[in-house]
UniProtKB/TrEMBL annotation:
<keyword id="KW-0067">ATP-binding</keyword>
<dbReference type="InterPro" id="IPR014001">
    <property type="entry name" value="Helicase_ATP-bd"/>
</dbReference>
<feature type="domain" description="Helicase C-terminal">
    <location>
        <begin position="121"/>
        <end position="272"/>
    </location>
</feature>
<dbReference type="InterPro" id="IPR001650">
    <property type="entry name" value="Helicase_C-like"/>
</dbReference>
<keyword id="KW-0694">RNA-binding</keyword>
<keyword id="KW-0347">Helicase</keyword>
<dbReference type="Pfam" id="PF00270">
    <property type="entry name" value="DEAD"/>
</dbReference>
<keyword id="KW-0547">Nucleotide-binding</keyword>
<feature type="domain" description="Helicase ATP-binding">
    <location>
        <begin position="1"/>
        <end position="166"/>
    </location>
</feature>
<keyword id="KW-0378">Hydrolase</keyword>
<feature type="region of interest" description="Disordered">
    <location>
        <begin position="275"/>
        <end position="309"/>
    </location>
</feature>
<dbReference type="InterPro" id="IPR027417">
    <property type="entry name" value="P-loop_NTPase"/>
</dbReference>
<feature type="compositionally biased region" description="Basic and acidic residues">
    <location>
        <begin position="289"/>
        <end position="298"/>
    </location>
</feature>
<protein>
    <recommendedName>
        <fullName>RNA helicase</fullName>
        <ecNumber>3.6.4.13</ecNumber>
    </recommendedName>
</protein>
<dbReference type="InterPro" id="IPR011545">
    <property type="entry name" value="DEAD/DEAH_box_helicase_dom"/>
</dbReference>
<dbReference type="Pfam" id="PF00271">
    <property type="entry name" value="Helicase_C"/>
</dbReference>
Length: 334
């Protein structure tokens, strides 16, 4: 199992060897006379949208081999590690780079905006983007909000004010979500208002701006959100609206921005100096993804769980890169 920074090409890293192995006939084939059809590879992802994206990419490369790759929605990475422990023998766990951190290709801006002023400030940003866009066109903008109801309300308001927008969240049907993503990617509705359903793994080309209209409560969710831009070596912009309701995020946000060589506003530094550490613990790095489940003391009944973040030794474990997924976190579909 491998973990790496968001936007670093993980899908290609595991898809290419799988497809290559299938096309070269390296995987076990179905015995003659056996009529049962079975896949040669199984890929699990944390969201349905990401499963569909991976399946589409795999289908492009593997069309000559027939339908032999199955992509499924497997829930959180901690659930997939449990399944790996059931089906694999002492699997290797590898963390590449600083998991849970952001890239310096994404310019991060944090603005102090009261809740009552958020829509007005958003409108100013969108007008400025449109004025600076090619031939006055609106560049692709992903706006993250906290609730499904808030997403629908903001979409309606944007459309009324002349900004074509669509939404993606857990209350929309699968067909509606697919149509929304296609409309956004094509530029027909260049603004996508979304909950965290769209935060993880989705690779949407040409997203120039990610706006955290509502900041999440966890720094790792923030990292995944802004990771929808600045992908594959391209630059991107991320703007976050911050106010007194987000004080628990002040310190981790300021630390992340410093780590990514971003300019931290003085007022955010002051908030950070007097706030408790918000979100999940970042002991040495982000907790999403980079935790080997086998080192969890609740899993290792012999009491040899050790520290998630390095120290000690475990077969195949690459420690020292930072945390892991929080098993108590709710699914993006809840």
């Amino acid at each position: 199992m491998a973990c790496a920074q968001t936007g670093s090409g993980k899908t290609a890293a595991f898809c290419f060897p799988i497809i290559s192995g299938i096309m070269r006939g390296q995987f076990p084939q179905r015995p003659r006379g056996v009529r049962t059809v079975f896949p040669l590879a199984l890929i699990l992802s944390p969201t349905r949208e990401l499963s569909m994206q991976i399946h589409e990419e795999a289908r492009k490369f593997a069309y000559q081999t027939g339908v032999k790759v199955v992509v499924a929605y497997g829930g959180a990475p901690i659930n997939q590690q449990r399944m790996a422990s059931d089906f694999l023998s002492n699997y290797i766990f590898l963390a590449v780079g600083r998991v849970g951190s952001s890239t310096d290709l994404i310019v991060q801006r944090v603005e102090f905006v009261h809740d009552s002023d958020k829509r007005s400030y958003l409108m100013d940003l969108l007008h400025a983007q449109k004025a600076n866009g090619a031939q006055g066109k609106q560049s692709l903008t992903l706006v993250f909000v906290e609730t499904k109801k808030g997403a629908d309300s903001l979409e309606h308001w944007l459309c009324l004010n002349g900004f074509p927008a669509t939404t993606i969240h857990g209350d929309r049907t699968q067909q509606e979500r697919e149509l929304a993503l296609r409309s956004f990617k094509s530029g027909n509705t260049p603004i996508l208002v979304a909950t965290d359903v769209a935060a993880r793994g989705l690779d949407i080309p040409h997203v120039s701006h990610v706006i955290n209209f509502d900041l999440p409560n966890d720094i790792d969710d923030y990292v995944h959100r802004i990771g929808r831009t600045g992908r594959a070596g391209k630059s991107g912009l991320a703007t976050a609206f911050f106010n007194e309701n987000n004080t628990s995020m002040a310190r981790p946000l300021a630390d992340l921005m410093k780590e990514s060589n971003q300019e931290v506003p003085d007022w955010l530094t002051r908030f950070a100096s007097r706030s408790s550490y918000g979100g999940k613990s970042r002991r040495g790095g982000g907790r999403f993804g980079a935790r080997d489940f086998r080192r969890d003391s609740s899993y290792n009944r012999s009491g040899g769980g050790g520290d998630y973040y390095g120290g000690g030794s475990s077969a195949g474990y690459s420690g020292g890169y930072g945390g892991g997924y929080n098993p108590g976190a709710a699914s993006a579909w809840d």
